[in-house]
Amino acid sequence: MKLRNQAVLAALVASMTISVAQAAKPVRIGVMPYGLKAEFMQMWTNAVKQDPAVKNGSVQIVVFDGNYDALTQSNQFDTMITQKYDAIIFAPIDRNAGSAAVAKAVAAHIPVIGSNTHVSGNQLTSYVGNDDVVAGRLEAEAIVKAIGGKGNVVIIEGPIGQSAQIDRSKGIAEVLAQHKDVKVLENKTANWSRAEALALVEDWLTSHPGQINGVIAENDEEALGAIQAMKSKGLDPKKIPVAGIDGIADGIQAAKRGEMTTFF
Fold first, then answer.
1. Are the beta carbons of 142 and 201 closer than 8 angstroms?
2. Closest to 6 measured CA to CA, from 61, 57, 43, 54
3. Rounded distance, CA 176 to CA 173, Å?
4. How far apart are CA 82 and CA 122, in angstroms?
5. Which of 39, 84, 102, 260 is most buried (most C-beta within 10 Å)?
6. What is the spatial distance between Cα 55 and Cα 43, in angstroms, rounded to a whole number?
């Protein structure tokens, strides 16, 4: 996972320039992260800003913070359609709601490139991203191995309805179905939030004292929240394996300290 986006988004912006050298004015592209509170989408957005076409002025980007809300993103599409943007790079918070928003842009003849998270249907001009089912499988396998193939785990999901949550959960479920000695004690969303994951895992540690053997978090922010929760309860996170996804800076440092088992 990590920041493979920097390379692919650079290529993406370049592909949208459409003979920029011959254009009378810069190509204007709306960049739509689903939310900018957490590090991963900040990294994603900064990668776009570093593209040479953006830096030399041949491409103008305007960033729209989706604020983790499907209606906000839909309204942002309306703004870009009204203002006749040349193209949109879209990381949707909701698979189905995002599809309806894309349909409006397509009807207005504005190409939409999906990135990082999917929408339903096939109306995107193209998509750049990872296989989240595989990501879910990998982190589940890592935790199952770390706990010796048996024990109790908890799962911290992403925002319900987002493609990353759906697909990572699918991959996790496929692996756990093959390990009957691994029991899921709790399974709930923390909305990609470190703070929400902290509160969630603190509650779980209280409800299941001494019973949680591993934590499968669908992103690094949630994994880091789980680690903080363990520390707040006086537990050693090195003794309860935690896996995450994204490779954000804090996650990498946690892995180096041995507090996060792995990240993808």
1. no
2. 43
3. 5
4. 23
5. 260
6. 17
Q: How far is CA 16 from CA 151, 165, 245, in A?
A: 49, 29, 29
What is this structure's pTM?
Answer: 0.87
Domains in the chain, start-ordered, CATH in brackets? 5-128 (3.40.50.2300), 132-263 (3.40.50.2300)
* DSSP-derived 3-state class of residue 39: helix
- E-strand ranges in 50-125 read 59-63, 87-90, 112-115
Q: What is the pLDDT along the chain (264 residues), one digit of tens a residue?
A: 444 444 445 555 555 544 444 556 899 999 999 999 989 999 999 999 999 999 999 999 999 999 999 999 999 999 999 999 999 999 999 999 999 999 999 999 999 999 999 999 999 999 999 899 999 999 999 999 999 999 999 999 999 999 999 999 999 999 999 999 999 999 999 999 999 999 999 999 999 999 999 999 999 999 999 999 999 999 999 999 999 999 999 999 999 999 998 777
Question: Count of alpha carbons within 13 Å of 183, Cβ hemisphere only?
Answer: 6
Q: In angstroms, what CA-CA distances link 172 with 119, 155, 179, 213, 247?
A: 21, 9, 11, 16, 18
CA distance 204 to 202: 5
SS3 63: strand
Residues whose CB is less than 8 angstroms from the CB of residue 159 and which lie 6 or more positions away in sequence, other chains included: 68, 93, 94, 165, 189, 191, 192
Reading the block at residue 100, the tokens are: 């309806």
Residue type at position 81 = I
